[in-house]
Amino acid sequence: MKSARTGNSDPLYVIFEQHLVNFQDNEVDRKVFISQVIKDYFSYLRRMKIIIPLSLEKSIAEELMSQVQVMLLKKIYGCHSIEEFQKKTSKAVRTQAKRKYSRLLKAK
Asked: Can you tell me the distance from the alpha carbon of 67 to that of 61, in angstroms, rounded to the nearest whole number?
């Protein structure tokens, strides 16, 4: 059985990073941003044939939201917004995030 991880990267972090570097809607608040990351993560888990019981989905989503919130705060530390973070992010970092995300989507 293949691992749900691609290389040493946590799939949740890879999905988070992809959303962060490709963020385009400045009107979206952090809560919506985090919800989108969680939604994509759950989709990834389903593609990997990982079943989350409906009775646990809400509590798992709440825990994941906390984790993504911490990741977001740490990643954009010193920036006032995601947009400001993106302006400071190099093209190499964006390319690397895209590459990791592509590998994640191909993993199965």
From this structure: 10
**13 HSE (CA, 13 A, CB side):** 12
Cβ pair 104, 14 in contact under 8 A:
yes
Give the number of other CB atoms < 10 A from CB of residue 37: 24
Over residues 14-53, the pLDDT tens digits come to: 999 999 988 877 777 889 999 999 999 999 999 999 999 9
Q: Note the pTM of the prediction, 2 decimals.
A: 0.82
Count of positions (residues) in the chain? 108
C-alpha span between 77 and 2 (Å, rounded): 35
Spatial distance between the Cα atoms of 101 and 73, rounded to a whole number of angstroms: 21
CB proximity list for 85: less than 8 A, separation 6 or greater: 20, 75, 76, 79
Q: Is 41:12 a contact under the CB 8 Å cutoff?
A: yes
Do residues 4 and 101 make contact, with C-beta atoms less than 8 angstroms apart? Answer: no
